[in-house]
Q: What sequence folds into this?
């Protein structure tokens, strides 16, 4: 079942990515926090992104945020793929061809 435009319309996925930091640091206004949470409930991709973001150390967060321009979906997908595929991660550390 797809969420209606009304439920997702308040904030775009791009804004969710932008708001992640403010939400976690507590500087996001109450109204925006509600919209943020509502979007997460209705958007599985943002929910997964947020869960990942929340577990990311602060230093990496900045780099992550900077790496996200318009191609949010692609970036998020790649990021999640790296995170959630253990085999790819272990291969990466050995850097063999
Ligand atoms: Zn979203």
A:
């Amino acid at each position: 079942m797809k969420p209606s435009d009304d439920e997702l319309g308040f904030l775009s996925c791009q804004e969710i990515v932008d708001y992640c930091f403010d939400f976690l640091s507590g500087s996001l206004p109450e109204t925006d926090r509600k919209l943020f949470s509502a979007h997460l409930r209705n958007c599985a991709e943002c929910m997964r992104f947020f869960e990942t973001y929340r577990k990311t150390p602060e230093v990496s967060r900045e780099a992550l945020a900077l790496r996200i321009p318009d191609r949010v979906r692609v970036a998020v997908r790649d990021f999640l793929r790296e995170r959630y595929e253990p085999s790819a991660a272990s291969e990466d550390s050995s850097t063999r061809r």
User: Anything to note?
Assistant: The first helix runs from residue 5 to 9. Helices lie at 5-9, 13-25, 30-42, 44-55, 58-66, 72-84, 86-94. The mean pLDDT is 74. The radius of gyration is 15 Å.
